[in-house]
Amino acid sequence: MSINLSKFGFIKRDTPRDINLDPLQTGGVLTPEARHALQEWGDEYSVCDYCGGALDEIKTPPIYDFVHKALPEFLGCDHVRITNGAREAKFAVMHSICKEGDWVVMDGNAHYSSLVAAQRARLNVKLVEKTPAPEYKITLEKYAQAIEEVKRETGRPPALALLTYPDGNYGNLADVKAISRLVHDNGIPFLVNGAYAIGRMPFNAKELGADFVAGSGHKSMSASGPIGVLGVSEEYAPIVLEKSKTHKTKEIELLGCTARGATIMTMIASFPAVYERARPENWQKEVENARWLSAQLENLGLRQMGDKPHNHDLMFFEAMPLYEISQKTDRYFLYREMKARSIHGIKPGLTKNFKISTFGVGREKLGIVADAFKEIIKKYNAC
């Protein structure tokens, strides 16, 4: 057998990222410390050299202090575990708290992985209806309606409620505290998917009223992924973090241990910077930058969907001026023009609508972005 090896080996990531607007990436850019950790801890199951059977109990490197001390304080949770991503955290909660055939209520803006996690756990899903365009909001009234529908159809409340905070489509921040009160008044455990919140903005599970939280290290905590975090309240910890009867140190829902090596070590390396950037005063600057760019693009005829004034860095735009240009040229013109300016983040072929994130970009570079849109529209309208 002869394998053609010419395509393999070192592969350069050649997409320009002088300015990156990709919502999946802006919060995951590695810090200098994390880049060093990636090289130092990239070989094998590197941290396993120090493991006595439970990953989260490793004292050196300081995984124990990170998981059992720093992260619970940072997230406002009683217990925290590292997972292989936010979706794995959500599945662990669903699989342990619910029984096959139970119902989960989740917002209509939920990430697809929330639905897939429920399907994998063999659960039924009731989606909370969102309001029409352009807001696409999740309201308390519609959430209550969905709960009542499940109670009426099944004779009992849903086994779990999930809210995406913010959602990954429009960057909307629902009234999580009010929804938490509603959910708990109905005797339902509450899971908050904070994949675009934890590590970017102030977040405290107890203040929000969450029994469980899921976060993403590679989306929002400057870690090399895939990696996530799972927060659990004291009440539900014995269920979610139950240990194996045959392997006493291994937690069942985590399959014994999860992220290890470069993933967790880059998360630890970036944590001081992540902790600082999530302070309220720093987050407010990010929100102001997002609102500023939104105003600049709306002055060009684009339309920002979702919450207004906006309260998150992730934004969704309807861009009819660009779509109209694409009908006269081709659908890839915007991608080419942005790439020529070393601006990354709008997927090839998208012109009618697209998502961007301003997190960590800064006002100066956002000015370059605003000018780029202005120049592109002017250039093609002059043709």
From TrEMBL:
Modified residues (N6-(pyridoxal phosphate)lysine): K219
Pfam annotation, one family: SepSecS
Keywords: Protein biosynthesis, Pyridoxal phosphate, Transferase
MF-aspect GO terms: Sep-tRNA:Cys-tRNA synthase activity
GO biological process, one term: translation
Record-listed E.C. numbers: 2.5.1.73
Domain of life: Archaea
Regions that span the bilayer: none
InterPro entries: PyrdxlP-dep_Trfase, PyrdxlP-dep_Trfase_major, PyrdxlP-dep_Trfase_small, Sep_Cys-tRNA_synth_arc, SepSecS/SepCysS
Catalysed reaction, written as an equation: O-phospho-L-seryl-tRNA(Cys) + hydrogen sulfide + H(+) = L-cysteinyl-tRNA(Cys) + phosphate
Residues at which pyridoxal 5'-phosphate binds: A86, R87, N193, S216, G217, H218
Cofactor(s) annotated in UniProt: pyridoxal 5'-phosphate
Record-linked SUPFAM superfamilies: PLP-dependent transferases (SSF53383)
Assembly information from the UniProt record: Homodimer. Interacts with SepRS.
Entry similarity comment: Belongs to the SepCysS family.
Function, in words: Converts O-phospho-L-seryl-tRNA(Cys) (Sep-tRNA(Cys)) to L-cysteinyl-tRNA(Cys) (Cys-tRNA(Cys)).
Protein name: O-phospho-L-seryl-tRNA:Cys-tRNA synthase
Organism: Methanocella conradii (strain DSM 24694 / JCM 17849 / CGMCC 1.5162 / HZ254)
